[in-house]
Predict the structure.
Amino acid sequence: MNEVASYRVSAIATNLPQATPIRACDITHPQPDQLPRRRSRVVAVMPAYNAEATLAATLADIPPGSVDDIILVDDDSRDRTVEIARGLGLRVVVHERNRGYGANQKTCYREALRAGADIVVMIHPDYQYDSRVIPHAVAFVELGICDIVLGNRIRSRREALAGGMPWWKYLANRFLTAVENFALGQNLGDFHSGFRVYRRAVLETIPFERNSDDFVFDTQFLVQAVHFGFRLGEIPMPVRYFPEASSINFRRSVCYGLGTLATVGQYWLHRLHLWRSSLFEPAQPTGG
């Protein structure tokens, strides 16, 4: 894409930060013939809000040939996100009003399933997550090792804080992830990543339409995945924290944390048959 290249030059001119270096397992930008051989249709989805400054850089780092289609869902942005996305040749869906992060993802996944995706990659278009990782994460799903792959931003405290993660966000992440691992019987390093890869069957099984339209959607989805028996894994994820990268403020983070704990509580109440929650009931089959 020539337009991608030109937009990438613009993005670099704005001095967007580079990803935190990976020492032990450095990720290079593979050529198409070096990518894991795929048999599945891979669709990337981007839940977007005011991403004009970072969209092109995120897109330009996606290794050529690693995805078959890219769908951007715009949640009533106030900037040129939609214009730039269309100029880059992306498939664009626009919400007529701001409906929230969870509602944006619901649209993303509906559109990806409609587009015939076998594997769905969700990545924020804010250039915080390193999109070069996509083919490596997809390979874990393609090979049948995992049903869901998350990008793990926190391999060590030093690396996370050096990458720009606020200390309060780091502490909250460590606490919530520890609670979730214990309560759900998992061993993940980061339950709260904005980079995720899903097998189609995951999206067809989990009743995500019943989830919150806000940020706690992410937690609800993973708790549901555990409930329905899907296999979760992760891959190291270089990240960048800078003003243009989307992030919720402290007050909303507190609400998110409380929502996370409430979701874990609902899971256990449902599992013990003390209180039934529709979040953990099978999704209704869609008409064909």
